[in-house]
UniProtKB/TrEMBL annotation:
Organism: Glycine soja
Record-linked InterPro entries: Calcineurin-like_PHP (IPR004843), Fn3_PAP (IPR040974), Metallo-depent_PP-like (IPR029052), MPP_PAP (IPR041792), PAPs_C (IPR025733), PAPs_N (IPR015914), Purple_acid_Pase-like_N (IPR008963)
Name of this chain's protein: Purple acid phosphatase
Enzyme category, top tier: hydrolase
Subunit-structure text: Homodimer.
Length: 613
């Protein structure tokens, strides 16, 4: 082998600080102890990758076949995928003035054991492996290691492979804008504003097309708050573009494609997509909403196994894709992809959800694995974001928040009003966020929008998770104390949370007391409280329930799933909980009422009545 293949090997001499993901074990990429690696190149060892050029038919993802051999095979041998292909320590900036290169420039973007699909590898020393790569704006190389993840020895490095156009515009994701008749399109590319003009070509189906320009954002390593996002997990994010498509006609189908006009006046295009414009506030039409939290990113090739994330995350994604014709909008309420500071995971997540997010609005909320980092203003002083401190979430996905760094906002969608809280910032009474949430709840016209839904990542209402039961609070401490009087005063129908990785539904409840014993069909004025739902089983490792019996808990499920709300009209709402494994309904209830039922007073929902006449 030529020396050109080993420019990158200097990175093996450096120290990797393993990041602990407190709630879910170690991130799989942090298990690779590259700081202990040694170079043990073997003349008879090799690793070959094919095809050399990917995406020749404009695919955004393609399977790569690896063939490899080692004269001293072991069951601990593993394959690492690196991108950029040259991960030389010569490109490493210093982390601070007392720490100089060499540093670990880049963790692998994925890895797999050499015997994963070759069970006789230990005996024969030969193996093959198929891995799925997505276009991530750079080339790739593959490395064969012996010695396991904890004491790796480099045996062989492959030639480089790359996508035909690594800069192509990719992974469009829709989101509602700041007005009801606006749709935003966000995508990722390798083209900066000095290289090309980003825009969306769009128009009504079978109608004239127009061009809408896009704003362009990016960020640097210095934008990260700590390791691994600032060190071994860092990877250039490319450019994130957002275009605002305005003055849409309600429920009309629009077609679009994303593009870049290069400086030489040639155009680079994505594929063709379409979406249905949102209904106007109060519009009577069939409106179907899917809500879940904590899905994470799966790998269909089996790499980077992370606490059994694959099955739940991929199953949830596939169920939504299969039922996409019956979904109008999606809310992913925090803990988006669990990158935890390993930035390439965000690209992989946007590729995973592209079939959904390119067709219906994909709205997010902020979770602890997106935002939390000590000394950065997060309400919880932990290290769950892996140093991302909210930058990735607020840049990769658009929300109509007035300040992207504070992800609380409201959404008017037909007969629904959604009030989305940011539990990673202070939400207690008297804070800026508390005032916003009260305004969101108070300002809705219930004759036009009878269905008020409160969404948040952490459980501010009720949960039987053992983690909360051990604290004696059955929710985030101070959560109910701050918000329950608002939920009651403004007659919030349903509050839905993530964070706890299971499903649970309460009775209509206020101040720890069920206000109705009905379980499946709430008619007229009978709600009298708010139904609290935990829907954090999107894909991350499941959370256990306490053995304590709680009177307010109606239905529990230790499994992966998601929630679907269907508003048929101003008087009838259907709630369903579906499992990700089969898409079938395992829990449901209906609310049937008229406007006068909403106006009726319940405990603490109306001021005192005067006796004057």
């Amino acid at each position: 082998m030529g020396e050109s293949k080993f420019v990158s090997l200097a990175f093996l001499l450096v120290c990797l600080v393993v990041q602990r993901v407190w709630s879910h074990g170690y991130h799989p990429l942090s298990k690779v102890a590259v700081h202990k690696a040694t170079v043990s190149l073997l003349d008879l060892a090799y690793i070959k990758a094919s095809p050399a050029v990917l995406g020749l038919q404009e695919q955004t993802a393609e399977w790569v076949t690896l063939e490899y051999s080692s004269p001293i095979p072991s069951i601990d041998d593993w394959i690492g995928v690196f991108s950029p292909a040259n991960f030389s320590a010569s490109t490493c900036p210093k982390e601070n003035r007392r720490v100089y290169p060499p540093l670990l420039c880049s963790a692998p973007i994925k890895y797999q054991y050499a015997n994963y699909s070759s069970p006789l590898y230990k005996e024969t020393g030969k193996g093959f492996l198929k891995l799925l790569l997505i276009n991530q704006r750079s080339d790739f190389s593959f490395a064969l290691f012996s010695g396991g993840l904890s004491n790796p020895k480099l045996v062989a490095v492959s030639d480089k492979i790359a996508f035909a156009n690594p800069n192509a515009p990719l992974y469009p994701r829709l989101a509602l804008g700041k007005s009801w008749n606006e749709m935003t399109v966000t995508w990722t590319s390798g083209y900066g504003i000095n290289d090309a003009e980003p825009f969306v070509q769009w128009g009504p189906k079978e109608g004239d097309r127009m061009h809408s320009p896009a704003e362009t954002l990016t960020f640097t390593r210095d934008s990260m708050c700590g390791a691994p996002a600032r060190t071994v997990g860092w990877r250039d994010p490319g450019y994130i573009h957002t275009s605002h498509l305005k003055e849409l006609w309600p429920n009309k189908i629009y077609e679009y494609r994303i593009g870049h006009k290069l400086n030489n006046v040639t155009y680079i295009w994505s594929g063709n997509y379409q979406f249905t414009a949102p209904p106007f506030p109060g519009q009577k039409s069939l409106q179907r909403v899917v809500i879940f939290g904590d899905m994470g990113k799966g790998e269909v090739d089996g790499s980077n196994e992370y606490n059994n994330f694959q099955h739940g995350s991929i199953n949830t994604t596939q169920q939504l894709i299969q039922d996409l014709e019956n979904i109008d909008i999606v809310f992913h309420i925090g803990d988006i992809c669990y990158a935890n500071g390993y930035l390439p995971q965000w690209d992989q997540f946007t590729a995973q959800v592209e079939p959904i997010a390119s067709a219906v609005p994909y709205m997010i909320a902020s979770g602890n694995h997106e935002r939390d980092w000590p000394g950065t203003g997060s309400f919880y002083e932990n290290m769950d974001s892996g140093g991302e401190c909210g930058v990735l979430a607020q840049t990769m996905f658009y929300t109509p928040a007035s300040n992207r760094a504070k992800l609380w906002y409201s959404i008017d969608y037909g007969m629904f009003r959604f009030c989305i809280a940011d539990t990673e910032h202070d939400w207690r009474e008297g804070t800026e966020q508390y005032k916003f949430i009260e305004h969101c709840l108070a300002s809705v016209d219930r004759q036009k929008q009878p269905w008020i839904i409160f969404l948040a990542h952490r459980v501010l209402g009720y949960s039987s998770c053992i983690c909360y039961a051990e604290e004696g609070s059955f929710a985030e401490p101070m959560g109910r104390e701050s918000f329950q009087k608002l939920w009651q005063k403004y007659k919030v129908d349903i509050a839905i949370y993530g964070h706890v990785h299971n499903y649970e539904r309460t009775c209509p409840i206020y101040q720890n007391i069920c206000t109705n014993e009905e379980k499946h069909h709430y008619k007229g004025r009978t709600l009298n409280g708010t139904i609290h739902v935990v829907a954090g089983g999107g894909g991350a490792s499941l959370s256990a329930f306490t053995s304590l019996k709680t009177k307010w808990s109606i239905f529990k499920d230790y499994d992966y799933g998601f929630v679907k709300l269907t508003a048929f009209d101003h008087s009838n709402l259907l709630f369903e909980y579906k499992k990700s494994r089969d898409g079938k309904v395992y829990d449901s209830f209906k609310i049937s009422r008229d406007y006068r039922d909403i106006l009726a007073c319940t405990m603490d929902s109306c001021p005192s009545i005067t006796m004057a006449s």
